[in-house]
Structures are given as C-alpha cells and as structure tokens.
Write a structure and sequence with these properties.
about 0% strand, about 200 residues, 8 helices, mainly alpha
Length: about 200
C-alpha cells in the first residue's frame, strides 16, 4: 500500500513539475518579446541586495499595514515550510523519516510550527478582508478572478492543515504523550493528543 501511495504521490508531483516547466517557458517567451535592456546586467550586487530588500521586506505590501503583515507571513510560509514538504515526501515511504541533522532539532521543529500557525492566521485574515471588501465598488480586488483566489486560499489552508496534522501524527507515532507536553510539538500538541488513540499501523 505504501508503494502504491508513494507512486501516486510522486507521479502527481512529476506531472505538476512538467506543467510548471511549460508555464515558465511560456512566461520566458513573453519576456523575451520585449525590447532588450543593455543595462540589465549592470550593478548586479546592488540589484540583488535591492531584490532581497523588496522581497523579504515586503516593502510595497507592508504599506497596507494589517493586510501587508498577514500577506508577509503567508509569503514567508511558502519558503520556510519547504522542509516540511520534503519530510512529507519521505514519510510516504518511511513514516519515521526526518530531515538530516535538523529534522529532530527542537529549534527547527518549533520554527516550522510557528511559521505554519502564522501562515494559517495570515491567510484566514486575508480571506476575511477579501470577503468584507469584495462588494465595494473601489477595492484592490476589483477585476480579480474570484475562482482563482478561492483556489489559492484553499491550497494554502490545506498546506497549513497538513503541516500541523503531520506533526501531530509524528508526535503520536513517537509516543510523545508519555512524557507530557514538550517544545518539540509546542503548537501541534492538540493534534498529537487527537491522534494518540490511533494504532501504530493506522498512523503509518
């Protein structure tokens, strides 16, 4: 059964990567239609530093205060939670899989759970803001595709749910409840308790 699930998971991922590559190629083709800029390669160091400042600092979005802060946490979650994605792929085959070196390091586990929680709070906040303002004549969501927005929101919520659920399953599988609450499952502890009654075979 594990082999079947792993095969399905990896095939879906392969298809997604192919579609991503096709789309990236299409976008690059669009960019190449524009007039070349001979100065684009100048001041690479300064350009790179400015890019980091704009992206990580979220300087434009943070002008929206609450909305910007919520959006920043969601944006950070995409990169910061990448390790949990790798862990999930490994656990499809081996339920005890963890990232080398940092996988069981309490600092990393706490970081991942905090980011997941803040990403969840951030996307719920953005969903609420969009629903409240979408009927106004003039708002920043005017003309946006609602269907695509719902899809993105649902995907992010699913990612957050899966991260916390997987952490809960890890805790239950490791028998974390025997020693009581601990920092390894600081935020996912309710999930650990919820899955604790399941058998090892069911969790795996």
């Amino acid at each position: 059964m594990k082999l079947v699930l792993a095969t399905i998971s990896y095939l879906i991922t392969a298809c997604a990567l192919v579609l991503l590559a096709v789309r990236v190629r299409q976008l690059i083709a669009i960019y190449k239609k524009q007039q070349p800029d001979p100065t684009r390669g100048n001041d690479k160091s300064a350009r790179f530093k400015n890019m980091l400042k704009e992206v990580l600092g979220h300087t434009k979005m943070l002008n929206f205060t609450g909305t910007g802060i919520a959006h920043w946490f969601v944006m950070i979650g995409f990169g910061a939670l990448f390790g949990t994605l790798i862990t999930a792929y490994g656990q499809v085959i081996n339920p005890d899989f963890a990232l080398p070196i940092i996988g069981h390091f309490v600092g990393y586990e706490l970081f991942a759970e905090v980011i997941a929680a803040l990403t969840g709070i951030g996307i719920v906040t953005l969903i609420g803001i969009r629903q409240v303002t979408r009927f106004r004549m003039l708002n920043r969501f005017s003309g946006s595709g609602m269907g695509k927005a719902y899809y993105v929101e649902a995907t992010i919520l699913a990612v957050v749910f899966c991260v916390i659920a997987l952490r809960g399953l890890e805790g239950a599988l490791a028998g974390a409840t025997s020693s009581g609450w601990n920092w390894h499952y600081a935020i996912s502890w309710p999930a650990v308790l919820a899955f604790n009654s399941m058998s090892t075979a069911s969790i795996e």
